[in-house]
Amino acid sequence: MGFTMGLNFVLLLAMVATNIVSLYHLSTTVQSPKPPPPVAIPIPEHLIRQLNDIRAAINHLTRHSSSSTSADTPAVPRDLILHSQIGPIASSCHHHPDLLHRYMNYTPFSACPYDPDLQETLILNGCHPLPRRRCFSKTPSKPTSSLPLNPFPTTLPDSSVIWNKYSCKSFACLLQNNPIGFDLNTQRSSLLKYTSDLDLPVNRFMQLAKSANSVIRLGIDIGGGTGTFAALMKIFYNVTMLTTTMNVNAPYNEAVAARGLVPLHVPLQQRLPVFDGTMDLVRCGRAVNRWIPLPVMEFMFYDVDRVLRGGGYLWVDRFFSKAVDLENVYEPLIGKLGYKRVKWAVANKTDPSGLKNGEVYLTAVLQKPVSR
C-alpha cells in the first residue's frame, strides 16, 4: 500500500514538472521577438528589362493554341515548341521569329531542308546555338573514298563539299577567285617568314614560349579561315588547335575538316565552347579588327581570358584600326586584362584604305598571369 502511494506520488510530481517545463517553453516562444522581415534586394532596371525580353521570347516561341492562331499568323512549328521545353533557345532568336520558324519548319525523321544560308544568317544575328532538329542533314552525293592525311595536300577534295549555294563549284575556282582565303601555300609562307616587326613566325613564337618554360599543347585560332595556322601547329609541333570559322561566301568549315583539322562553326560574338582555364594559346587572326563593335570585342577578350590557363598566351596577329583608336580605345581595352607584354609591334597600314583612314597594324603576344 505504502509502495503504491509512493509510486503515485512520484508520477504526480513528474507530471507536474513536465507541465511546468511546457508552460515555460510556451511562454518563451510567445514572448520572443519576431525576426525582422527579409530586406528586399533591389534589382537593376536593365536586368529586369533583359529578363522581360527573355520571358517574352519564350512566351512567343511556346505559344501555340488554335484560339490564338489567325489566318495571317502562321503556327509555331511543333518541333520548335518541343525543343523549347527540353533545351535552351538563345534569347536573340526572338528578334528573328520568322527565320527561326522557317528553320524549324520541317518533317521530323526525314531529310532536313537544305538551308545553310538560313542557318548562317541566324547564327550571325546571335541566334546561336541553333536548336537541334530531328531530321537527316544532307551530305555530298559522291563522297571521296580517301581524305588527305597531310594538312597541306596538293588539292582539297571537291567531293567533300555541297556546292549548291556557291558561285564556285570547286576549290580550284576558289583558289583562282579568292587566293587570300584558299591559297594554302601562300598562307603557310606568311606564317613562317619574317619581313617586319609585324611578323611573328610560328617557330619564333614557340621559341618565346619555350624560353619562358611554357608548354603549348592546346589552343584556339579565332577567325582562322581555312585552318592554315592550325595545320602548321599540328605538323611541326603536334599542337591541337581548334579553328573558329564561318561559311561566308565559301566553304571554310569543310576546308578545315578536309585537312584533318577541327572547325568550330562559331561567330565572333558567341562564347567559346571550351571549359575555363584549359587552353595554352588563343590566336586572333585578321578577322578580329576594328569592324567588330567595341562591346563585342571587349566580351570576346574576357572570354579568351576565361579559357586560357594561367601563363597561357593571347596572340593578336595584325589587328588593324585607326591609329588614334588604337591609342585611345583598343590599347586600354587590352591593358585591362593585366597581361605581360611579350611582343607589341605597331606599323602603318600602307594599302589605299589604310592611308586614307590613318590605319595601323598591331601584332601582340601577351601572357596571362600565372595566378590571379
Automatic annotation (TrEMBL):
Keyword terms of this UniProt record: Membrane, Transmembrane, Transmembrane helix
InterPro entries: Methyltransf_11, Prob_Methyltransferase, SAM-dependent_MTases_sf
Keyword rRNA processing belongs to the record: no
Domain Methyltransferase type: 221-315
Signal peptide as annotated in the record: none
Pfam families, A to Z: Methyltransf_11
Keyword Transmembrane in annotation: yes
Superkingdom of the organism of origin: Eukaryota
Protein name (Swiss-Prot/TrEMBL): Methyltransferase type 11 domain-containing protein
Residues annotated as transmembrane: 7-26
UniProt GO MF annotations: S-adenosylmethionine-dependent methyltransferase activity
